[in-house]
Design goal:
Layout lengths: L12 H8 L6 E4 L6 H9 L4 E4 L6 E6 L8 H4 L3 E3 L5 H8 L6 E4 L6 H9 L4 E6 L2 H13 L5 E6 L10 E7 L20 H21 E11 L8 H10 L3 E4 L8 E2 L3 E2 L2 E2 L8 E3 L1 H4 L4 E8 L23 H18 L11 E4 L3 E5 L15 E6 L1 E7 L3 E4 L1 H7 L6 E3 L2 H8 L4 E2 L5 E7 L2 E9 L2 E4 L3 H10 L7
Parallel strand pairs: 5-6, 5-8, 6-7, 8-9, 21-23
Antiparallel strand pairs: 1-3, 1-4, 2-3, 7-18, 9-15, 10-15, 11-14, 12-13, 14-15, 16-17, 17-19, 19-20, 22-25, 23-24, 24-25
Helix pairs in contact: 4-5, 7-8
The chain binds S-adenosylmethionine (SAM).
């Protein structure tokens, strides 16, 4: 074990040391709402992967054999799996356990491991996902599109000053940290952190947690997680917040997973006795990375206040009238029903949000942002699926994300052979007998994206980077 300072607090030192010396097995999480686990397992097994389900959390599989990176499979490209450390899949369960939150805030969300999981576990809830980093927000956006998360709205915002005014049923703080728990993947975390960096991190973590406590409604839940062992970033942070907030209590987590208790003392510094109920999951416990996890309940009654505010039709930053937005939605619906052949029943219970360049299709039922003061400090960056995008001078086209999510519900499909897909993805038009207009493009009956037929030839509308990775996922090598 690399950190002698943890020797006195780590009960199974040798087992932990041995686990840290081995590479961690890769694990994936499935999305049963999208495709049943047995189908995902069958499809990956057919390509030589061997998957072993974990006893807990559900829908997490260890890749016992990975003939090539799972991130390069079609199943990953289509968003049926998310590569996530098994231990990290405990976090979303800690948010939803013994609670039925209707509106959840993920305060440090990118690139989206926990957001996609929360959205899957809470299909009827609205998940608000925030992060400060533009670059990481882009990764979050692409993961949310790939896995078709219709109940997630994303915001660029600093979690320390996240707008108040709309209480959440649950808030997750998956805090930036020194990531010591990633030692099996990244030996750089072995370097001793300079004191000043540790102090800066713990100040940031404390500010995020303090904001989360102000953002949760009475009776609601705050979950604080890091992937580090350092007590300065874990118990010490929660201790200071607990001492200032007698209305908070640590709640016991009841997962059937081995773990160590939270610390009530480190290097002579005592911590709040309730912190014994926090969880420390060391690498040997789940043969994974490390995790610190604690669930706090804010005292007080009352149920969710979430029902009041519904999402607007017009994106808050768009300079558009409601009438113009409605016209664009009507056009989009006509295109979906008349051109792509989607039955109107499939568009029920969905909401639209119209932005300058995009039309978003989503299932967010409530809208905390309507209670926030307008400010440059926060910006709505996405809401559900980016369903239509403006091209050139204004023509609106269905995106591949939308068509892929609709899948079989699109009647107007053009089925192509692998060799035709190869030409298509290399930028060539492929002859077809389909009439002109937008279509879904499929391979062996599975819809992979949107296409446009003109004069007896079809082209794909898949973004260039996605087309390149699709070519790789389909093992196409011929046409170039
Ligand atoms: C541990 S990562 C989150 C991982 C993510 N929850 C997941 O499961 O994929 C911490 C995140 O906090 C973000 N972050 C750092 N400072 C922040 C702040 N002041 N407010 C909000 N997010 C912040 C980072 O950009 C980073 O994406």
């Amino acid at each position: 074990m690399p950190w002698p300072r943890y020797r006195g607090v780590l009960p199974e030192w040798e087992a932990c040391e041995a686990a840290c010396g081995r590479p961690a097995p890769k694990t994936v999480r499935t999305f049963p709402s999208r495709l049943p686990d047995e189908v995902v397992v069958r499809r990956l097994s057919a390509q030589g992967f061997v998957l072993e389900p974990l006893p807990f959390p559900p829908h997490v599989y260890r890749l016992v054999r990975e003939p090539f990176p799972v991130g390069k499979t079609l199943e990953h490209w289509l968003g049926y799996v998310y590569v996530q450390e098994s231990v990290m899949a405990l976090v979303a369960h800690a948010v939803v356990e013994r609670a039925e939150p209707k509106v959840v805030l993920d305060l440090c969300a990118a690139p989206g491991g926990k957001t996609t999981h929360l959205s899957e576990l809470l299909p009827g809830a609205t998940v608000v996902a925030a992060d400060t980093s533009q670059r990481r927000l882009r990764a979050l956006g692409s993961n949310l599109q790939r896995t078709a998360r219709l109940n997630v709205a994303t915001f660029r915002a600093d979690g320390r000053t996240f707008p108040l005014g709309a209480p959440f049923d649950a808030v997750l703080v998956d805090a930036p940290c020194s990531a010591e728990g990633n030692v099996r993947d990244d030996p750089r975390v072995l370097r001793d952190l300079p004191e000043a960096t540790r102090r800066r991190l713990s100040r940031l973590q404390e500010a995020l947690l303090r904001r989360a406590v102000r953002l949760v409604r009475p009776g609601g839940v705050v979950v604080y997680a890091t992937c580090t062992f350092a007590p300065e970033e874990n118990e010490a942070v929660v201790d200071r917040v607990l001492c200032d907030h007698p209305e908070l209590a640590v709640e016991l987590l009841r997962f059937p997973v081995p773990h160590a208790d939270g610390l009530v003392e480190f290097s002579g510094q005592p911590f709040h006795p309730q912190l014994r109920q926090a969880w420390r999951v060391y690498p040997h416990h789940m043969d994974s990375g490390g995790l610190f996890l604690v669930r706090l309940r804010r005292a007080g009654g009352g149920g969710s206040e979430a029902a009041a505010d519904v999402p607007p039709l017009v994106h808050p930053a768009a300079r558009l009238s409601e009438a113009e937005a409605s016209r664009r939605v009507d056009r989009a619906v006509r295109l979906l029903t008349d051109e792509l052949g989607v039955a109107p029943v499939h568009l029920q219970k969905l909401r639209w949000m119209v932005a300058s360049r995009h039309l978003w299709l989503h299932r967010c039922e409530v809208w905390p942002a309507s209670r926030w003061k307008p400010s440059r400090a926060w910006e709505l960056t996405g809401c559900g699926l980016r369903a239509f995008a403006r091209w050139g001078r204004g023509e609106e086209r269905p995106t591949s994300w939308l068509v892929q999510w609709l899948g079989d519900r699109v009647r107007n499909r053009v089925e192509l052979e692998p060799e035709q897909w190869d030409r298509l993805l290399c930028g060539q038009a492929v002859p077809t007998s389909a009439p002109s207009g937008f279509v879904a493009l499929s391979l062996r009956g599975e819809v992979l994206g949107a296409g446009l037929v003109r004069a007896g030839r079809v082209r794909h509308l898949i973004p260039a980077d996605r087309a390149a990775s699709l070519r790789e996922a389909l093992h196409l090598t011929g046409a170039r």
